[in-house]
Each structure stands twice: as structure tokens, then as C-alpha cells.
Amino acid sequence: MRASPRLRLLGAAFVVAVLAAVPAACAEGEPRSRATDRPNNAVESAAEQSRPAESQAAASQPASTQSPAAAAEDNTAVSVLGCVLVLVIVGLFVGGLVLSRSQRRSAWDRQAQQLRSSTVAAAESRVPPVLNTTGRADRGVVWPPIRTGLVGLVDQWDLLVESAPGESRREWALRLNGLLRELIAAVDAESESIAAGRSWRVLRPRVLEAQLALDVALTVGPDAAATAGRPMPPSY
């Protein structure tokens, strides 16, 4: 869902190039100076006096061709229209980028909420029965399928981390990913201790701490987590 850096760079370059071309395009259609449109008064008077009567009579008739001033006005109107069209294209392009970013953020938020609900359900309903099973044979049967489901949730959090539309959302998803990994590692260590015939009570505080940290993190959204500025736990 995240746009590649190359695509963003090309979009920014396109906008800069179009905006840089707008002043030049508008400047081309500006009417020339009045000094260039009007001949020198003295020269014009001398030319009129030296014209024959037939030329003066012909000059008094309306001109059939367009005057330079009218042509300049037409060029100015065309240039202004071109500038407006360029600005409209730039506005549509920028608006499309903003809309696309908003849509990607909304889609990511929906996926994140669904995954958070699945993680809450797994942490509250599936992990406690495992912790209540302290027998070697029973733990070896109960824990593996639940562990597989938790690892599947970790994989989904990995995808959300990679596609997060913003640093705050990425840090929030990465934190939940790390806490879920820590819970799996803690239960793994306890299960291995039970399988080896050692006391599981020594390792239970680590499991409870990881479980509590995950429960607390699941109660807040990405914006609240970014405001709190909590450090992220190590990944195992």
C-alpha cells in the first residue's frame, strides 16, 4: 500500500517542473510595450505628409487585417487560458496524491483494527488455558497449535509494519509485534522447562509480565502510543 520512494520522487519532480513552467508560459502572452506598438510620432507625421493622395485615401478606409494591438490581446487571452489549464492540472494531480494517501491510511487503519481484535482474542482466551496446563504431556499437546496461531498473528503484524502509512503507525504496529514475540518466547521457555522436568514457577513472572505489557499496549491506538513515546521491547 505504501508508494515507493521512486514514485513519490517522480510525482514531486512533475509538480515542480509544471509550477516552474507556469510563469514562463504566462510571460509569453503578455502584451508588448506600448512604445514598440506605436511608431515614432515625428516619423509617422512625416510619412503621412509624404504619402500621395491615393495612399491617404486608402489609409482612411477601415483596415481589413487585424491590428497588432488586437493580435496581442488575443495572444494574452490564449496565454491566460493556458495558465489556468496548467494550474487546474497541477491541482488535480496534487489532490489525487492527497486522496490516495488518505485512502491508503484508512485501509491500513481498518486492517490494523481487525488484527488488534484478533490479537486481543488470542491473548485473553487462548493463552490463559495454556498457562493453566503445567503437566508435561498436557503442555506438549495444548501449546503447539496455539503457538502456531500466535505466530500467524506475528506475520500479519509484520505486513502491517512494512505497509504503515506514517511513522507513528509503524512504531505502534512494531511495538505490538515485539510484545507478541516476547509473549511467545516466554511461554516457549516455560514449556521447555516443563518438558525437561524443571520448575516452571521460576519462569512464570516473565510470562505474566509479557502478557500484561501486551494487554496494555492493545488498549491504545497508534496516535496515543506515539504521544506516550514508550520504548519498544527487544524482538526475540
TrEMBL record:
Record region (Disordered): 28-68
Q: Where is the composition biased (Low complexity)?
A: 44-68
Domain of life where this protein originates: Bacteria
Which interval of the chain is the signal sequence? 1-27
Transmembrane residue ranges: 77-100
Q: Which keywords belong to this entry?
A: Membrane, Signal, Transmembrane, Transmembrane helix
Under which name does UniProt file this protein? Uncharacterized protein
Upper lineage: Bacteria, Bacillati, Actinomycetota, Actinomycetes, Cryptosporangiales
